[in-house]
Amino acid sequence: MSLGFGQTPNTNAPLTWSDCVSLASRYNPDLAAARNSLESSRASYFGSYNGLCPQITLSNSYSDSNASNDSENWQVGGSVRLNLFNRSQIYSIKSSRAFTAQSEANLKQTSAALRFNLRVAFAQLLFAQKNIEVSQSIVNMRQQEAQLVTLRYNSGTEFKGNMLRANAQFLQAKADLDKSVRDLRTVQRVLNRQLGLDEFTVIIVTNTLEIQEPGDLPKDEQSLLNSRPDVVLQEAQVESAQAGLGQSKSALWPNLSANYSQSSSGGSESSSFNSFQPNWGLTLNYPLFGGGPTAAYYAISAAKNNLEKENQNLRSVRAQAVVDIETAWSNFSNAIDQLKVQSELLTASRTRYDEANIRYDSGLMTYDNWEIISTDRVSQEHQTIQAQLNALVAEASWAKAKGMQGSVK
Predict the structure, then answer these.
(1) Which value, to the nearest 10 degrees, does the dihedral of the CA atoms of residues 245, 250, 252, 255 take?
(2) What is the structure's pLDDT at 93?
(3) Nearest to 400 by CA among 224, 182, 279
(4) Considering only 32-46, 338-352, 363-377, which range has the smallest mean pLDDT?
(5) In the chain, what percentage of residues exceed pLDDT 70?
(6) Coil/strand/helix, residue 205
(7) Nearest-10 Cα torsion for 386, 388, 394, 396
(8) So what's the pLDDT on residue 89?
(9) 72 φ, ψ to 5°?
(10) Which segments of 192-302 are extended strands (E)?
(11) Whole-angstrom Cα distance, residue 372 to residue 141?
(12) Which run of H or E residues covers position 332?
């Protein structure tokens, strides 16, 4: 299914995983906000270079005074001012660049989080649909059991309590099916949220999500940290704090600028262009108080402490990232092992149930034993679906922990 920009999904056609990624890239509000934030910071960064550009001013003025006969006066001129040395302006540019780096890292983090949440929502909807199919098959199974036990009760070969229990289990199966239908709408709502659809849309998803084995735990977990968006974001914050420290120290340096101007005046507009008077000079500014060294001392102290704070935060983020990597790998490995076990248990349970039906029909098994095997079959069906979902979520968490799960941009 191919979706173009501005189109809404066709509810009659199931969405694949790639369709959902495409929709989320276009419509998710969190992703759109992060993009706009990045564009805003880029514009501010490029605009910060204006402080290094020459300041050129052109003027043309006219005045009229009744105090004298020659009362009209025209004046034209132009001036140029250029900062030759201004550390504050340099670090203002570096600060804007660091803020842009933060916005870029925030976009990556938002995109990575969206991909994780989207994959979980897609998997939940996929298995919610599958759960309805399983629940319907269990309803059919319980209905046949209830009919069989009722028939045997009517023929005098089964107890009334067993007949009542069989019918109650049939009602329970129908209640579970109704719950599965309600749960389907809930997870559809969750997927709608991740896709960024403003109006609720009944979405059906298709295809399966292949689960890859986790492999061995990486020997050098530190090598994975540079690809994690949270680490990249914190590194950008350290860069911003470094720029802030440089900005605070700039008050200790003088500002040097060059000025050049020409002006001319006359009694008429044309005569005002006849004789221009050039003027040029250099200006050296060094504030001693109210923004000079006295203020810089405390600004530098605050900036140093802020930089140290960001460096410690970076240590904390990197340490937590290593914990996240190992925890996610362990959980994924456990989920894969449990899925393998659960698949074998389901196969065994289905086989035992088929064998028990034959023995119960032949009168070689009591209802109590048959009911235990039947209930185990129902339990294993639901537990297998949950184990498959758990494995998919664990895989997404493992990819997120490594910072290599891709993004939605």
Answers:
(1) 180
(2) 81
(3) 224
(4) 32-46
(5) 80
(6) strand
(7) -120
(8) 75
(9) -80, 140
(10) 255-266, 277-285
(11) 14
(12) helix 293-361
- Which tokens is 255 given? 């500002």
pLDDT at 67 over 90: no
- d(CA 308, CA 291) in angstroms, rounded, equals 24
* Residue 255: strand pairing partners: 285
DSSP string, 272-323: GGS--EEEEEEEEE---SSSSHHHHHHHHHHHHHHHHHHHHHHHHHHHHHHH
Residue 60 three-state SS: strand
The pLDDT assigned to 2 comes to 41
Sign for the pseudo-dihedral over CA of 386, 390, 393, 395: negative
143 exposure class (CB count in 10 Å sphere: 0-12, 13-18, 19+): middle
Domains of the chain, start order: 17-50+86-142+190-251+288-402 (1.20.1600.10)
Whether 25 and 196 have beta carbons less than 8 Å apart is answered as no
Compute the mean pLDDT over every residue in the chain, rounded to the nearest whole number.
84
- Put simply, whether the predicted model's pTM sits higher than 0.85 gets the answer no
